[in-house]
Amino acid sequence: MNIPVLPVIMAGGSGTRLWPLSRAGYPKQFLVLSGNTSLFQQATSRLQAVGGEGFDIAAPMVVGNEEHRFLVLDQMRELGVEPAAVVLEPVGRNTAPALALAALQALQGDQDPVLVVTAADQTVTDEPAFVEAVRRAVRVAAAGGIAILGVTPERPETGYGYIRQEAAGDTGEPRVAQFVEKPDAATAARYVADGHYFWNAGMFVLRASTWMAALDRFRPDIAGACRAAWAVRSTDARFVRPGKAEFAAVPSESVDYAVMEKCPGSGIDIRMVALDAGWNDLGSWEAVWQVAAKDPQDNAHVGDAIVRDSRNTLVHATSRLVGVVGLQDVVVIETPDAVLVADRSRSQDVKHIVAQLTAEKREEQTLHRKVHRPWGWYDSIDAGPRFQVKRIMVKPGASLSLQMHHHRAEHWIVVSGTAEVTNGDQVILLSENQSTYIPLGQTHRLANPGKVPLEIIEVQSGSYLGEDDIVRFQDTYGRG
To answer: Around 396, how many Cα atoms within 13 Å sit in the side-chain half-sphere?
Structure first.
């Protein structure tokens, strides 16, 4: 009989250390850092490859937050994959409660699949080796144990926790002897030389019931609070929403601290499967440089970049030409509204810039100039006193909310596609090069009735042009 396997993708992170490319509203797991698929899409694809040869792989379950729910669906749709469910955390409570929500969802209908739990923002260069390691871990979990993937260390690394395995026994995978915290450089070097220490990649394989039983044993407060939030959940299409107030009361804790670190010596069968598959968690620009393709001088660059007389640099150009001369061990990341220049060895400290932006309530921490919405996107291409110009794309069949503004009027010019415009009591169709005017206070809506993307230029004028000057009367996407 085949083993039922349910991939669980944790997609709720904010990726602050990859600012300015990663923003709270569009974090790193949804970015295409190389090739033509995002990290989230790569995670989805490689987990689907686990199926076959005695393993029944289900459609993945995604645990994320409300703000990114349509990014999840859009990116999975591009792969031709429909999620089993998208569980939306009302607030971030770290990975232990997130996994509890996934387990409770998986246990619906008297099912108890093996959960393969992974973050959405990691890379693997050797997919066959990854698939083989996961299948070995699934066999451990199907027998009632917990399996954790331990990455064979390539170098002394102070940014990861480590797993110490026991000496291999006569049968099965080696047991986990101990989880250890992020070490200093000397300790990390000793771990690598020892040969029994592996990087903790945060990838776990276990039955849904096994996780809930372990959580009940070690952190009954988290388990009980998650069940209380789950009991008052609501479901809308693929989206599952636990009770907001109830989930806010759940203690915040990681999978490691809540359960995994307590398992060795407890009688719980916890095993480690070695993973040697070119894994990287892309937790910093240094990590991105490590996995990137490089020229003979070890420079990595993406986009329109000219690099001269430089070594060991990373240049990422998003919207314009970037020229670099005479630099060494430097990161240059260009976006339309922000540029980062940093010593590569200090790339972890980008989080301090993000913290300052957050404290100052600056939009560069949250949003790109190009902002993705469920219906498409808009790009604020120019602004000045009392005016703003946006380029807007609406997906085929999509529409914006029926809305009005108290402080601004709008001019719309169709660049390509067909626009269906509700302007007060009138509904009109506009094609390429046609335009219309929305007076201040007028109820209006923009829709794309066609089969190709609609692009318009919107010119706003008025005394206040903030995004919060909007009153929605009808909205397909459930926004207030």
So the answer is: 5
The partner residues of 305 in beta bridges, in order of sequence, read 322
Return the CATH number of 3-275, one of 3.90.660.10, 3.40.50.1450, 3.90.550.10, 3.30.479.20.
3.90.550.10
- Please give the structure tokens belonging to residue 103: 């387990």
pTM to 2 decimal places: 0.87
Q: What is the pLDDT of residue 171?
A: 63
CATH of domain 370-474: 2.60.120.10
Residues in the chain: 480
* Per-residue confidence band for 170, with pLDDT thresholds at 50, 70 and 90: low
The beta-carbon contacts of 314-317 under 8 Å, at least 24 apart in sequence, are 314/285, 314/288, 314/289, 314/344, 316/21
| Inter-residue contact 116 to 207 (CB < 8 Å) | no
What is the predicted pLDDT for the residue at 43? 94
Give per-residue pLDDT as tens, 121-150: 999 999 999 999 999 999 999 999 999 999
